[in-house]
Backbone:
């Protein structure tokens, strides 16, 4: 997963959430296979946030059908995302990522699994949500293992901040879910506090110890989760629902 973060910037007119600093843009050269995937599949499967026309994306037209839309923010190299999309053919699964080779690799994985319900968005998910997703349009949003920015002075760069959570909540349909996961204890506590303070959301597992959701058996183990286990860190899941 690419580990995105969020900060608030202002211009002379009004405060806004700006895309250029909402993630860490990693460089990287594509493999031959990833480049082939771009050439063969991107015109049909992918779009670039910066090139989208004004207004909400027409998801039924893009996917070729009416179905609930689920957005995953930060799909990384696509191993988990491709499996999740393949396991939920009833969903229109949208993956937002900034890392070009990662999107190329995701298309390769999707091709291998025969996935047909996946579309890719290259660019900042904050701009996508703000400018190109209508209120109430999403059945779910997933944010798995975002950049923890472990140093205290960098906590303001974490993507899970009140403004971001409010934005996600506004784009969820009633009953839609915001599913988060992290292997950093302090970040998990911040996620819990920020999401619990959003009046449009409720914790589905508020009655469970700590308010944590049980680890869903359907969520594949990511490389970050594997590393956390080796390093002795416990992963936490949170699932909030749009009221």
Residues:
């Amino acid at each position: 997963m690419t580990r995105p973060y969020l900060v608030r910037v202002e211009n002379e007119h009004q405060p806004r959430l700006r895309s250029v600093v909402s993630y860490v843009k990693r460089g990287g050269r594509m493999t031959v296979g990833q480049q082939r995937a771009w050439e063969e599949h991107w015109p049909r499967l992918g779009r670039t946030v910066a090139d989208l026309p004004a207004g909400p994306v027409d998801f039924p037209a893009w996917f070729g059908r009416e179905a609930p839309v689920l957005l995953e923010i930060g799909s990384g190299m696509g191993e988990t995302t491709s499996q999740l999309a393949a396991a939920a053919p009833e969903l229109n699964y949208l993956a937002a990522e900034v890392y070009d080779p990662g999107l190329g690799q995701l298309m390769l994985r999707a091709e291998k699994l025969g996935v047909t319900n996946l579309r890719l968005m290259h660019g900042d998910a904050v701009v996508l949500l703000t400018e190109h997703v209508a209120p109430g349009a999403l059945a779910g949003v997933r944010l798995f293992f975002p950049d923890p920015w472990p140093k205290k002075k960098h906590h303001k760069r974490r993507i899970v901040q009140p403004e971001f959570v409010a934005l996600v909540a506004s784009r969820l349909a009633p009953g839609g879910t915001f599913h988060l996961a992290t292997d950093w204890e302090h970040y998990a506590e911040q996620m819990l506090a920020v999401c619990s303070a959003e009046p449009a959301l409720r914790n589905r597992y508020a009655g469970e110890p700590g308010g944590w959701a049980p680890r869903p058996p359907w969520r594949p183990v990511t490389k970050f989760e594997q590393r956390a286990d080796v390093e002795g860190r416990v992963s936490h899941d949170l699932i909030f629902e749009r009221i």
Notes: Residues 73 and 205 are 22 Å apart (CA to CA). Residues 4-26 have pLDDT under 50 and may be disordered. The domain at 32-242 is CATH 3.40.50.150 (Rossmann fold). The helical segments are 32-45, 59-63, 79-87, 100-113, 125-132, 162-171, 185-197, 223-230.
